């Protein structure tokens, strides 16, 4: 498969979870380099505010309100992008809900985590591939650098991001076997200074220990691989190596995990008498 990627100045970028964190940082950098942007989020007020600001500066943007977990809504958003700009060059599946609660029980309903983190990305790929089959393009799935390892109090988040990676590997192979001109890259960031969407998060503790990276670093990486070949992109020295570290260097993995704040929290969910 031979795929010639367009420069950013000629691209139409479709991005989900667009109103904060990685999504917003990517948009701000992309428009400065001449890309047209189609933003998707479930917060219309924020989308309108961002678009008003960007258009006042002369940038070309449009948006749609959609839940990524709803295939019909996301499909409508992609159709709106095609009607507005004519194509989609890079499709960025950027979404992440982090459930963190030292007192949650194993019976808690966190189906929303998989609906957003996994099915939201599957829906994006299902929509993007047919749209890109003729002209080609890039799909970027945002995973996580630690999704290959255990992380206490985040089992559903880690599982959902591991599912994203496994799904992406399989889909990439299918695209290759079918000679489909679509590059599928997995972006694997680590601890970020972004307003993660959280379910039942404790507000009085830091979410991560240093080093914590700025979302702009991820944005730079995403845009870099929107114009050049690349597959698994770890945005942190350890992130890209975590599969190998987990498999071949278990002591190093244990050291890394002990730096997590979640190892210092009481696992009170297992003190629930109903679960004993």
List the helices and strands and how they pair.
Elements: E1 12-16, H1 21-32, E2 36-41, H2 44-56, E3 61-65, H3 71-85, E4 90-93, E5 97-99, H4 111-132, E6 137-142, H5 155-177, E7 182-189, E8 197-199, H6 215-224, E9 232-235, H7 242-248, H8 250-258
Parallel strand pairs: 1-2, 1-4, 2-3, 4-6, 5-8, 6-7, 7-9
Helix pairs in contact: 1-6, 3-4, 4-5
Overview of the structural elements:
- This protein starts with 11 loop residues before the first strand and ends in an 18-residue tail after the last helix.
- α2 (44-56) links the parallel β2 and β3.
- The strands form two sheets. Strands 3-2-1-4-6-7-9 form a seven-stranded parallel beta sheet, sandwiched between helices.
- Mean pLDDT is 78; it is low at 197-211, 235-240 and 261-276.
- It has a single domain (8-275), classed as NAD(P)-binding Rossmann-like Domain (Rossmann fold).
- The chain is 40% helix and 16% strand.
- The chain is of the alpha/beta class and 276 residues long.
- It has helices at 21-32, 44-56, 71-85, 111-132, 155-177, 215-224, 242-248, 250-258; strands spanning 12-16, 36-41, 61-65, 90-93, 97-99, 137-142, 182-189, 197-199, 232-235.
